[in-house]
Each structure stands twice: as C-alpha cells, then as structure tokens.
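Internal ticket #5521
Category: modeling
Description: The requester needs a full-assembly model to guide mutagenesis choices. All entity lines are attached below as received. Residue total reported by intake: 607.
Assigned to: D.W.
Attached entities:
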Amino acid sequence: MLIANLMAERELDVWDCLSAVSDPELDEPITDMNFVERVEVSDDMEVRVEFRLPTYWCSPNFAFLMAFGIRAEVTALPWVRGVTVHLKDHCLGDDVNDGVNSGRSFHEIFAENCDGAALGEVVEKFMAKAFDRRQEVMLLGLKAMGRSVEEIVAMPLATLKRVRFTGEEELRQLPRYLDILAVRGLASAEEDPAFPTWQGGRIAPDDLVAHLGRLRSTRINMEFNGALCRGLAKTRYKEVEIGADGPTLVDFMAGRVPPRQATGARR
Amino acid sequence: MYKTPDGKEIFVLDGHTHFWDGSPENQSNVHGKQFIDCFYAYHTNLSPPEHLWEKARFEKYSEDDIYRDLFVDGPDDMAIIQTTVLRDFYKNGFGCLERSTDMARRHPERFIVNGSFDPRDGEKALEYIHYMKENFDIQGVKMYTAEWNGGSKGWALNDPAAYKCFELCEKLGIKNIHVHKGPTIIPLSKDAFSVDDVDYAATDFQNLNWIVEHCGLPRLDDFCWIAVQETNVYAGLAVALPFIHARPRYFAEVIAELLFWVGEDKILFGSDYAIWTPGWLVDKFWNFQIPDDIAQERGVQLTDEIKEKILGLNAARLYGIDVEAKKKQLSGAPVQIAAE
C-alpha cells in the first residue's frame, strides 16, 4: 500500500508539472484542455505521457511544441530517470514521436521538418496573441475597479503588482501577464510602465479604447477556438479506455470518466 | 423559404453545402477515415441532441436525404454544393463535381454546383478549369488549401501556380472563390491556418469575390483585419453559426465582430450540410438577439433586415440571382420527394 501511495504521488507530480505546458494557440494549459490522456510511472522511475489533440489535423507545429514542452517539464522533475512522450492519432504523429523521443534537441528536429527554417515566426505570432489576451484581462479588471484611463496607461509595474484583484480570471492571469512581460523584456523594473504595447511602445490615453478593441478581437478568437477544441476533445475522448480496475483518481482529474447516464446512451 | 413567426417569407440561399461519400468503401487510407471522423466530431459536438445522425448515414447519405434535409424539412430555397475532392484520401473523391451535378439534375432550379481545382497540377489545372466551365458552366470554385497532393501537404492562394489559375478564372467569368483554410502542414515554421494569402490574392484579383468559409476560423481576428481592408472579401458563417445552440454568447461575440469589421452586406449563411442541417440553424438564427452588453460595446445590431441579407440576399447578389423571379419560379414548383 505504501508503494502504491508513493507511485500515485509521483503520478500527481507529473500531472502538476504538465500544467506548465500550454497550447500555443489557446494559451491554456494542456491539462486544463484535457489533452493529456495517461501518465504512467514505472518502478524504475521511467515516465510515459500519452496525449491526444482534439483532431487528427491539429497544427503539427503546435503538436511538436507541446510534445517537447512535456519532455522538458517532466525531465526537470528530480526523481525522473527517463521520459517517453506519445502523441496519439495525429496526422504527423510518427514524426512527432520519433523526434521528441530521439533525445535530440527541439531545434534540430524542427529544422528537419521545415527546410532549416527556425520556428520564430509562428512562436512570435502566438506569443503576441497570448500577450494581448493576458493584458486585456488586466486592463478590463482595472477599469471595472474604477481606475481612470490616465492612471491605467501610466501605471508602473510596482503598482500593478500591489493591486488587490478579486476576480478569478484576473488572479489567474496576473502572474501569467507578469511572466510574459519579463520573458519578453517589456517590463521588469518596479518603475517600468505596466502596460506597454507588444512592440514596447506606450498607450496614449486617447488610444486606450481602440487598443482594447483590438485586444478584444484576439480574445474572442482565442475563446472561440478554445470552446471548439474543448468540445472536439470531449467528443473524441469518449473513446478513451479506462483500465481494467475501473477509473483511478487521475481519470477523474483528466475529466475522462463519462457521466453515468451518458455511457448507455452513446451513439 | 423560412416563414417568420409573424408570417414574413424569407429567401434562404445556403452558401455552403456538400454531397459527399466518406464511407469506408470509398476511403483509400487512414487519412480518409480520420477526415470523415473529424467532420463527425464537429457534428456530434455542436448539434442539438435531437439532430444527431448515426455514423453510417453521416458517412454517406442519399439524393433523397439531401433534398429533404435542405428543402422539405429545411428552409433552404437554394443551396450551393461545394466540391472537395481529396483524391489522396478517397478512391472516387469525397465531394465531386460530377456526382453532385448528377444529383442536382433532379432539381436544377434549386442547386448551384461549384467546382474545384488544385493549382499544384500546373498545366493540367488550367485545362481542368476550361473543362469545368465548358461542361458544367461553373460560377464558382471551392479552394481547400490544406489538401494533400503526393508529397505536398498544402498550398497558398498567392503561390505563382495559383495566380495562373485565378487569372484564367477571371477570364472565364468564374467569379466566386470560396476559400477554406485547413491546416497546411509544411513548412512547420509557418502558421498552419494563416489567412495572409487571402489578403494578397484579394488585392491582386479585385474582380473576383473571395468568400472565406468559417469566417477565417481559427483565425477570426486576423481575418477581420483583412476583410475590413478588402472590399471583395466575404465571410461565410459555416462552423461559427452552430455555436448559436451550444454557446450562444460566443456566437453573439463572433457575429458582433463580423458585423463591426466585415459588415452586414458581406456575411453569408452556410449550413455546411451534412455536418449540420439548415432547419435548426435558420430557426435559431432568426430568433437570435445579440445581448445588450455585447451589442453596445461593439455598437452593432442584428436586425431582421440584416438577418434577411445574411440568409440569402448577399449570396444571391454574388451569384446573380433575381430573388423575386426565383421566388416566383419556386412557388410554381413546390418541394416534394420524388417517388422511388
């Protein structure tokens, strides 16, 4: 029983760390999207992660990014001796699986599949969209708290960090927004403006409405895709096999245990 | 014809429908199976439960099925059948011009059948465009840029070979280019769903109408930016519209964006039959209102007049249909299921 507990704990460790891997298109953790189907930890600390995307045709470059993201996060756990990542039912699945499990670097594998080009363009595009979405949450949150336009566009980073948000989405996105500001080098010192544009410029008070209009378009697109992907994933995941001993804790966590009445009524 | 609750008759031109054969007998490989399975996932995910089909019927439906679903049980007055060949995946093609034309021959007053070509075929593509015009007098084509063709896993509208084809379309009067962005796979360094090529093609071919199906989804935001700059770019509502049932608020946000950026004269209804049937879609659309907060934020309305444009008048304009004359013609030929 003690060993069983230990193994369950290690499985949960893996599930935890997988939440740091996001779908680039949606800027949502792959665990929230229910893309991860199975985590197995062997007696000798080898981890196997199986994941499946909402359709066979999902963007292969994103599949590559997520597969390598999984490998990086799981490898970083101190007790892990080896990792196998398996993408199921995907049009480029063999290439992704061969690449991610070869032990070679992401850039090496990736360059092979795009005539030597780097991933720059597409990563840049989706980071910009993630930035838009996270920034919009912060701006709308501050507006809802009654902060003036002038105050918002001039707000230094230190002030933003001290704002007491109460909304669930603001609390979820604040660290993600601060993170992308830092990673991108847009704001890191306390006195840096908290709301630069993606190009590093400032937002004039008169431009805030138009700026928010643009962020809104990005968000609606991402939310729409997120809703589509969640629905398709749910439809596809009905096929998932639950182990012989019935569902375990992680099956429930991954949301792959169908509601009772639905099992008999499947078409 | 859709009859509104207060008795008004609305002309419905369904801009995006299919007559496909995705049955296992016709599949060439796993990709063919996965393609129809993906469509079926869209169907099961977004249809109201009472409109769900059995898988076998979804894979291949009959001439009677399509006629009944669109015109008898459904409110369509006319429907545009789009061609999607997928010859690397299906033995006899998925949705073919010849098979659709045979089906449409029973009710020519109700169907417009569009063609398709693959610019990667080079000279043969040009010959094929001539063939389609001479034998089928097509007015439009459906372009599926994610189609596989041997080693190629997709193409772009602004490829030089594609431009040669569009030049010929313009010359022959094939004016309506329906574009479906699926994931173009290689090179991986590019955004697989990018709609940038629509921008180039629409700028360079001002005399052609570019109808972007699924309103550019999953790149709705990029598409809106392009459509606002190009007067000859239109948004097809297929895939977005079914959200009206499962996620009405999302749909409200999407239609508000489209009305704001693209405008009420350039949005086209399409059921994407047989993924969804037009009956419930049109009924829900007619009875739909954008919630006040969303309408106010974007400063747009979805009035009855705008709905009428979206459901049929906008597409009728693109296809040169005199709606009053067509209504008269159809009222003289009421719908009926032909005896088997």
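Resolution: model delivered.
Comment from assignee: DSSP finds 14 helices and ten strands in chain B.
Ticket closed.
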